[in-house]
Amino acid sequence: MTKTKVICFANNKGGSGKTTTCSNIGYGLAQLGHKVLLVDGDMQLNLSLSLFPEDAVLAMAQDEKNLYMAMKKQEDLKDYIVHTPYENLDLIPSSTLMSGIEYELFTKWQREFILKKALRSIRESGEYDYILIDAPPTLGGWAINILCASDRLIIPVEASPWGLFGLANMFEFLDEVREMAPELSLLGVVITKVDTRKNYFKQTLETLRQMQEVPVFDTYIRVDSTIEWAQDDSKPVIAYKKSSRSAKEYMKMAEEVEKLWQ
Fold it and tell me: What are the chain's domains?
């Protein structure tokens, strides 16, 4: 039976390319022959929007079968899975009501582990090789839930003057969560929105490499307008234009994930 690997994508700073990285690594792993389940944990619905048109995403958000309703009812997530148009790639959609998830969880018993429990039967079934969870850009109780449900964490960081802002808080948060979930570890930091003509990339890379015990992915994602066109078309960039620079980089990153954690 396949041991399902659970990876969450988190950064408390918005604009890091977190959702795009989650979506495209998921699609890339599916292209490599793995069965992948994406979980949209953010009220902004961007992960869902990277796979389905806006009208379909809004319909799922207003339906009973989305992540918010499952968490509110504390139900098994196997009944909330939606098949995407892509082979080997499924989704548990989000809802705009996720903005109130902290309130819903506050009075629950062992509230930090509700998502982990909801994913248990899916994990134990071995149906999926990977479960990838997109976390919101916050460090609250819901983010704790997502990290506690995960085996590994990937932190996307933007190569900009403010890209590393708040990263120390993210590492402190990870250390605190690991007291509850000691098996959780950092798979690596991904550098996104790279412009190799500017010094920001070199500065970001040097700063990260100076941090002890912080693994950094060899693959990085350069600025590419194709990503925005793919988002506008509600597709992962690899599906939108496989020959584009960013699509090749995300495929390479999916291969690196596969090799890093075999």
Answer: 5-260 (3.40.50.300)
